[in-house]
């Protein structure tokens, strides 16, 4: 095990050997294994957005096994999906790649100002299918946020009691926020802190903008001169919000964009000291050859030497 992975595992001192072993499985697998960086393939979009919207751009992606093989061939650290997709390939790919079972999901058949998620699988399913972690989404800013926080805490407790890691999708949205507020720097930082306080080992968020949603937060950002003018500075602040970098924060790949746009975002995350990316539509909506090439370029960036002061500080950890 590399010193960097040992350092990261040391941040989770309250966890059992079983949970630490599963975290190590995630951190040690794939092309970036041992670096402390993560690239995960998530495929929950069939449930979240609908099959045609998700898979028609690349029809082989309708097949659940396509995604297992894509994640494996690309050298991803892990593959994350809801119950049905994991069940479809867990036996055939047993032991080949770490699996994250997404345990709650929502659909787009209703346009809810305050979204929530249904509990669609459980810790027992994750254990049965050989997963190393459970995934759970929360929506800070939704009228249903407190219910989701309670559900996450219960799932995290059960997962850790059974030696599994906990990955949280923390996506601000709901009637309590403006559209711009969903990616505001103060709100995304708050979402990261909430997920960490609820027991997440790995936290997934969207890249933040320089917008500040809450006036009380704006006063602090201005008074303390918190630097947020560049993307890398904003990433660094988000990592600070995760217990000064003692919780792993990865960033969403978002809707499909050009290779150039995505790779610029990856460079920003890397320069700001982020721990990696979870890239779904920008992977499986491309033809397989193009997806493998793009994921390879993403991993090349995350595997490259750190150049910025912010990233170099993050790479040596927190004393």
Explain the overall architecture.
Helix content is 45%, strand content 13%. The model has no long low-confidence stretch (mean pLDDT 95). The protein has 15 helices and ten strands. The two termini are 20 Å apart. The chain has 319 residues and is an alpha/beta fold. The longest helix has 17 residues, at 145-161. The radius of gyration is 18 Å and the shape is globular. It has helices at residues 3-9, 17-28, 45-48, 51-55, 64-74, 83-89, 123-128, 145-161, 185-197, 215-223, 231-241, 259-271, 281-284, 288-303, 309-315; strands spanning 38-42, 78-81, 99-102, 104-105, 118-119, 133-138, 165-170, 202-205, 248-252, 276-278. The strands form two sheets. It has an eight-stranded parallel barrel, surrounded by seven helices. A two-stranded antiparallel sheet has the order 4-5. The protein has a single domain (3-315), classed as TIM Barrel (Alpha-Beta Barrel), CATH 3.20.20. Helix 9 (185-197) packs parallel to helix 11 (231-241), helix 11 crosses helix 12 and helix 12 packs parallel to helix 14 (288-303).
């Amino acid at each position: 095990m590399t010193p960097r992975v040992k350092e990261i595992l040391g941040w989770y001192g309250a966890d059992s050997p079983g949970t630490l072993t599963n975290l190590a499985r995630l951190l040690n697998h794939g092309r970036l294994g041992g670096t402390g960086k993560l690239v995960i393939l998530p495929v929950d979009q069939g449930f979240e957005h609908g099959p045609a919207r998700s898979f028609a751009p690349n029809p082989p992606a309708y097949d659940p096994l396509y995604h297992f093989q894509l994640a494996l061939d690309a050298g991803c650290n892990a593959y994350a999906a809801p119950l049905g997709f994991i069940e479809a390939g867990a036996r055939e790919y047993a032991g080949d790649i770490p699996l994250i079972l997404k345990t709650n999901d929502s659909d787009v058949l209703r346009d809810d100002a305050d979204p929530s998620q249904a509990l669609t699988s459980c810790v027992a399913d994750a254990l049965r299918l050989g997963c190393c972690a459970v995934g759970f989404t929360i929506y800070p800013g939704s009228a249903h946020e407190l219910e989701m926080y309670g559900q996450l805490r219960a799932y995290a407790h059960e997962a850790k009691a059974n030696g599994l890691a906990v990955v949280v999708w923390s996506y601000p949205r709901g009637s309590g926020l403006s559209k711009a507020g969903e990616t505001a720097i103060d709100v995304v930082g708050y979402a990261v802190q909430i997920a960490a306080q609820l027991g997440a080992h790995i936290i997934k968020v969207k890249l933040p903008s320089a917008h500040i949603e809450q006036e009380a937060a704006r006063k602090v950002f201005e008074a303390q001169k918190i630097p947020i003018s560049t993307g890398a500075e904003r990433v660094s602040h988000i990592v600070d919000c995760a217990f000064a970098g003692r919780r792993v924060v990865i960033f969403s790949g978002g809707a499909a964009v050009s290779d150039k746009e995505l790779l610029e975002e990856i460079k920003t995350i890397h320069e700001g000291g982020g721990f990696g990316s979870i890239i779904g539509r920008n992977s499986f909506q491309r033809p397989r050859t193009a997806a493998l090439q793009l994921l390879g370029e993403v991993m090349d960036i995350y595997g490259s030497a750190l150049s910025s002061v912010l990233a170099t500080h993050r790479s040596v950890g927190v004393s």
